[in-house]
Design a protein that fits this description.
Layout (H helix, E strand, L loop, with lengths): L1 E4 L6 H4 L1 E4 L11 E10 L2 H8 L16 E5 L5 E6 L9 E11 L6 H5 L2 H14 L7 E4 L5 H12 L3 E6 L2 H10 L3 E4 L5 H8 L5 E6 L3 H10 E9 L12 H7 L2 E4 L2 H7 L1 H16 L7 E6 L3 H9 L6 E5 L1
Helix pairs in contact: 4-5, 4-11, 7-8, 10-11
Length: 320
């Protein structure tokens, strides 16, 4: 079967190689299902794995792609899930843990379903389980037109929050408005700290959803409200901040870490319940994956390069 492989670490556009590899077969004692890939969503962890910088690093060579919509080979059931590396989603076939394969929402096509699981589960657990977002509160979302951020904007709006979206550039600003953000701040044109204070009458944001880190996090500490909550989702900006805990003490805000993958082992029932609720919201038209581009299989390296450069609007999805 055709697949993309990473034989050495480096930038995705430089190291990805097209290869003809055997169809993966579940090993003895493994509770896995073989899946024909219908669409593979590109994620920032794919970039970090290519670079050798992610906390989970499969042995070389491996096939990247941590999220998919596929068809179970034996039953034909349409599912969403996370492949078991080193057999990633950028291939014709992969394998998925049986208990980590969820029914694909009927309301979403293959590309939309491929980008559904990680972004919306992360958003749901971040906003509801960690931050306890309440109706009427103000939610600040960084990288609001990206894959993770766009999901948080929609989920915040669905929860009855007032959403302030921070983006980089006019195309992303337009996307954030279309998602339902109440206030959109282009960080290239405005100081987002001043904009948040102005939009909230000086009070600040009750909840900050930050998948960027670096300057986004530092600025957030200056515009988070009294007893606000900053949810640390990731570090797409490339810099891991060192929080000044005396500042958190003086200003009475909470810093909340979010590693959604841990819920898969620590509370799988909550993950399953979350998927049912998100599927319901998709069926109602309340949430829908923002697809920036549907890419042919040959364009996967270029897509990962755009993702790494922060140029993508919404999800980039590869159709094998």
């Amino acid at each position: 079967m055709k697949a993309w492989q990473v034989p050495v670490h480096g930038e995705p556009a430089d190291v990805l190689r097209a290869a003809d590899v055997p169809v993966p077969v579940p090993g003895p004692g493994q509770v896995l299902v073989r899946v024909r890939v219908r669409a593979a969503a590109l994620n920032f962890p794919d970039v970090l794995m290519c670079r050798g910088q992610y906390q989970v690093q499969p042995p070389l060579p491996y096939t990247p792609g941590v999220e998919l919509c596929g068809e179970v080979a034996d039953s034909g059931e349409r599912i969403v899930g996370m492949p078991v590396l080193p057999h990633g989603a950028l291939a014709e076939y992969t394998v998925v843990e049986a208990d980590a394969a969820f029914p694909a929402p009927d309301a979403l096509d293959d590309a939309e379903a491929a980008g559904f699981l990680l972004a919306y589960q992360t958003g749901w657990f971040g906003l509801h389980r960690r931050a306890r977002l309440q109706p009427g509160e103000t939610l600040l979302v960084h990288a609001a037109a990206g894959g993770v951020g766009s999901a948080a904007v929609q989920l915040g709006t669905a929860a009855g929050a007032r959403v302030i979206a921070v983006v980089g550039g006019p195309a992303k600003a337009e996307a954030a408005r279309a998602l339902g953000a109440d206030v959109v701040v282009d960080r290239r044109e405005q100081d987002f700290v001043a904009a948040v204070k102005d939009a909230t009458g000086g009070r600040g944001a009750d909840v900050v959803y930050d998948p960027v880190g670096g300057a986004a996090y530092q600025g957030s500490t200056k515009c988070v409200a009294f007893e606000g909550r900053i949810v640390v989702v990731g570090f797409a900006g490339g810099t891991i901040p060192a929080p000044a805990l005396n500042h958190a003490l003086v200003k009475n805000y909470s810093i909340l870490g979010l590693h959604w993958g841990l819920y898969r082992t620590q509370d799988p029932a909550a993950v399953a319940a979350c998927h049912r609720e998100l599927t319901r919201l998709a069926a109602a038209g309340t949430i829908r994956t923002l697809i920036g581009e549907r890419l042919p299989f040959d364009a996967a390296p270029a897509g990962l390069a755009r993702l790494a450069a922060g140029e993508a609007v919404g999800r980039l999805v590869v159709l094998p």
